[in-house]
Design brief:
- The chain has 216 residues and is of the alpha+beta class.
- Helices cover 37% and strands 19% of the residues.
- Strands 1-4-3-2-5-7-6 form a 7-stranded antiparallel β-sheet, sandwiched between helices.
- A hairpin with a 2-residue loop joins strand 2 and strand 3.
- Helix 2 crosses helix 5 and helix 3 runs antiparallel to helix 5.
- The structure holds flavin mononucleotide.
- The site of flavin mononucleotide (FMN) has 9 residues, from strand 6.
Length: 216
């Protein structure tokens, strides 16, 4: 009798433990493969490229397919395992990290496996822009210089310069992909850096360069 009781207690303990672990475990999102059959030509996308107005920003969320396409365009692999949609000095892997702040949390884009890796379960969209309208975006990309990856370059000024060059190329790709997919986007420099750094638990030397609002 005593051993049956302790067995039940042990089973209940295991169930509770499993529930607790699953509630705190990271919930990564496996993205669908980016679609490569968009019919909008590069020159059409260039003609359409523009910033959606902040005060009247499109508020419908992106589908996972749209999100996958935009992230891939921004910094995805386009030639096997060592070529990306944006040029990086010396052909190094991207030294600017791309995060996506969504309603259900914040995620780091893992370009290798096309997965969004959860870094926070919190909706931080209303906290990170200095302008109030930034909160209205269904998705906000956050571009962050990765200090460890950039330490490859000895000179501090060169690290900053190369990160900003990469961000310029990445955000232009975001603009063009958004134009081709019929999405709205807007480059945002006015940010609350402290909020971003604590929400993303960034290493001290990493530095946030900009946000890109995205909506449909
Ligand atoms: C470096 C840079 C910083 C920007 N920062 C902001 C910003 O903080 N807030 C904002 O509403 N728009 C910002 N923008 C968007 C510009 O205002 C927008 O690109 C400009 O009005 C030109 O519009 P267009 O992109 O449609 O050509 C920024 C754009 C760039 C390139």
């Amino acid at each position: 009798m005593k051993s049956r009781c302790s067995f039940r207690f042990f089973t209940a303990f295991l169930v509770l433990l499993a529930l607790f672990v699953s509630s705190v475990a990271w919930a990564d999102i496996k993205l669908p493969a980016p679609r490569m059959d968009n019919k909008v030509t590069l020159f059409d996308a260039l003609k359409r490229r523009s910033s959606a107005p902040g005060g009247d920003f499109p508020t419908a969320p992106l589908s996972d397919e749209d999100l996958s396409d935009v992230l891939w365009a921004t910094v995805g692999l386009n030639r096997g395992q060592k070529g990306w949609t944006v040029p990086m000095s010396e052909g190094l892997p991207p030294y600017v990290d791309l995060y996506a702040a969504l309603e259900n949390g914040v995620f780091l884009y893992d370009w290798k496996d096309n997965i969004l890796r959860e870094v926070s379960k919190n909706d931080i969209r209303a906290k990170i822009g200095a302008q109030r309208f930034v909160a209205s975006a269904p998705c906000i990309l956050i571009l962050v210089g990765n200090a460890e990856a950039l330490s490859h370059f000895k000179d501090e000024a060169v690290r900053k310069e190369f990160a900003h060059v990469a961000v310029g190329a990445m955000t232009q790709d975001t603009y063009l992909a958004a134009a081709a997919l019929g999405l709205g986007t807007r480059y945002i420099h006015s940010m609350k850096l402290d909020e971003i750094e604590s929400a993303l638990r960034l290493p001290k030397e990493d530095f946030t360069v900009c946000l890109m609002m995205l909506g449909k």
